[in-house]
Amino acid sequence: MTDPYMKTEKEKILSGEMYSPFVAGLSENRARLGDLIHQYNLLTPSETDGKQTLARTILDATEEKNFTVEQSFYCDYVHKIHIGNNFFSNFNCAISAIGLVSIGVDILFSSAKKDDLEYAKPIAIGNNAWIAGNVVILPGVTTGDNTIIGAGNVVTKNIPANVIAVGNSCKVIREI
Predict the structure, then answer these.
(1) H or E segment and range at residue 70
(2) For site-directed labelling of 127, which of 1, 3, 91, 108 has its Cα 20 to 30 A away?
(3) Which residues have CB under 8 Å from 114's CB, separation 6+?
(4) 3-class DSSP state for residue 22?
């Protein structure tokens, strides 16, 4: 007989306790969510109704919520992602969490500004440069020739030629 006071693994996840990820139900949930995300990312940009339907399922969003999630979108086997109204996620958004994720109202996961206004400043990368993986170069920034930007860095200011730059915000650490 099952103890009515014993929590399920899903209840443990949602309450922030240690849990076993390989029990029945959780594996199936991961596979189902993975299938939904895969389907979502395969839709063409013009398939707006299909994208909204799948995104509403993945994000647990009601019909009255106004939101946009650009493709590609990824998440772990999150049990609930609650989004507030007026949510925008630009492309390549990844939410890596297992428990509840709660996102407020009027949220941008983007380089765009609020108030429906954007600006377009050029980005210039010099010759013979190496920009490592997952680097973000903000609008209006220039990097010089023969420059190395370390992986995962955010470049917010101009970087001169012939240097290695790392950090958040990215800073020159030495000349080459």
Answers:
(1) none
(2) 91
(3) 106, 108
(4) coil
Q: To 10 degrees, what angle do helices 26-42 and 48-59 make?
A: 160
The predicted model scores a pTM of 0.70
SS3 call for 44: coil
Task: Give residue 131's Cα distance to chain centre.
Answer: 20
Say which CATH superfamily domain 9-109 falls into.
Hexapeptide repeat proteins (2.160.10.10)
**pLDDT per residue over 109-150, tens digit each?**
887 666 667 777 899 999 999 999 989 898 899 999 999 999
The sign of the dihedral angle between the CA atoms of 113, 119, 120, 121 is negative
Please identify which residue in the block is written with the tokens 């995300």.
37
What CATH fold (topology level) applies to the domain 124-175? Answer: UDP N-Acetylglucosamine Acyltransferase; domain 1 (2.160.10)
Q: Each residue of 58-105: pLDDT tens digit?
A: 887 777 789 999 999 998 776 678 888 999 999 888 887 777 888 889
Kindly write down the DSSP assignment for every residue of 103-143, as one continuous string.
Answer: E-SSEEESSS-STT-------EE-TT-EE-TT-EE-TT-EE
Length of the chain: 176
